[in-house]
Amino acid sequence: MNLKRLKEALLVLSLVGTWAIAHAADSPNIQNGGTIVTVPGVGLAPPSAMNGFNPLLTSSAYDSEAEDLMYQPLIWVNRDFKINFKLSVAKKIVVGPKHRSFTVYLSRHWKWSDGVPVTTADVAYTYHMLMKLGPLWPGWDSGGVPGDIHSFTVLGPYAFR
Question: Is the CB of residue 155 less than 8 Å from the CB of residue 121?
């Protein structure tokens, strides 16, 4: 897998997003439940209802647009196809010999909305869900997922290969 394919694969995984990530919850007024009020189809026309917020089951551009606003990506790829690590959950990627392995280190400052740190357990959960969904997942076989991934190993709470 070359670096370009890795970027594509990681972009797909990041868009898949079990990354319902926000900065640490600074507000003491955290509320469970309630109603989300939004304008359907912001930036897209014609307006349409959204079907859900689960990026593993995205069924429309409207769902995808809302999910992009809700979930922080594993890697943030800018318009020049370069990774912006300040906006990424990953803080660095170490490429192994012959570009056959990629060790991804997560930044420790990202947290879920309830304050729980984002760890490799979240990444592993997403990866394993993708494998279970198989071709039912809309992004299946794009960006090298799963064809170019031969193994997934958690190395610790903030690193995976």
Answer: no
Confidence at residue 22, expressed as pLDDT on a 0 to 100 scale: 42
Question: 0.85 exceeded by the pTM?
Answer: no
Please, are residues 84 and 76 in contact by the beta-carbon 8 Å criterion?
A: yes
Chain-centroid distance, C-alpha 153: 17
Proportion of the chain above pLDDT 90, given as a percent: 39
CA distance 72 to 14: 8
Band of residue 91 on the pLDDT scale cut at 50, 70, 90: very high
In angstroms, the CA 87 to CA 91 distance is: 9
Which one, of 60, 90, 73, lies nearest residue 13 by Cα? Answer: 73
Q: Where are the alpha helices (DSSP H) in 17-115?
A: 61-70
pLDDT at 104: 97
Dihedral angle of Cα 125, 115, 75, 42, to the nearest 10 degrees: 100
Q: How far apart are CA 42 and CA 34, in angstroms?
A: 21
